[in-house]
Fold these 2 entries.
Entry 1:
Amino acid sequence: MKPSVPVHTAVLVIDVQAGLFAAKPPPFEAETVIARINAVTEQARQAGAPVIFIQHDSEPSEPDLVPFSEGWKLHPKLEVRPGELVIRKTTCDAFYGTALESELRSRGITTLLLMGFATDFCVDSTLRNALSKDFSVIVVADAHTTADDPILKAELVIKHHNWAWANCISRKGVTILKASEVRFPAAAAT
């Protein structure tokens, strides 16, 4: 099968943390989304693409994500390999005040594949800043999630964002793929 993901792509898994997924009710299709993330990250690893985890640090007023608390830890069902990069952030945007951009540039990354939590906040903010930094962006449409908000159910928030991102006016545009459509190029022989 032809690759759907270009060479020089990094995978960003945003805020898949125990406390966020333990909410009552949990994020939309939480367990299924984590399984899809794990399937895509495994493909990325086999192709030699970097997998980077983004982890949100909160203030003590948000006890679920205070650094080093149980809720702050990456979700126990999320497959993280030793040595994979974890970048901590304090705002919705994974670039703001972090080393993310310098890490990506130092690795020659030109495309970001995004998955994770929260569609309408952290995934969206990171995606828009990535576009402004001239990265190409791929979103795995069924591997990001959020919770219901006071106005819309999570399923509609996700569908709306997938549509909005696909129609976003930017120099490179945004590609939307389902997890089953993601194909990384074969790893180069060493």
Entry 2:
Amino acid sequence: NLKPEQGITSEGSLNYKNTFKHIFLKINFAAFNRKINNWIFWLPVANGNPSPENVQQVWSRGTETNWQIVYTKNYFSSGINLNTSYILSTVTKDALPNSSSLDRQLIYTPRYLASGSFFIKAKNISLSYFQNYTGYRFTSSDNLNWLNPFTVAVLKLNSEIKLEKMNVNYFFSVNNLFNAQYAVIAARPMPMRNYEFGITF
């Protein structure tokens, strides 16, 4: 019985990129504005399984930035990447009278997100470090309950072998490097430090 989403979206961006000898620089700034009727939202219910529901009207707006700088010389390269976003997603219309969700942030939608990465590569071997930050996420429509912000780090070692007709990529990563205790959904804690190994062809 879900109704289709309908609305108006506008978005704009400014981009700058340039190369200075061995250094590549890229900067991006974007802003968006969305007003969506019948916004489809997955709402946690009593049995623990989320269920899709229509929200009368949601106004989502925000900004996003991306900064990237890469140094390359011969077989060596190194770079830094930084992403940030600020998002307000609020309910502007609700079918329920005196609704506590009006003008409140949607649950599980963080206002602040940030991620950064650093890599160093020599020939076909690279080492990368990733750091992600997720801000407060409300767990009730009246915004009186929330999950604390968390930051998670990943360290990844990667090696690529080029064969005649394919590339073979080996990687080993340490996820949640600093053993952060966090939950993406209330009462569902995420794994502590864990390890991952993979091969892609």
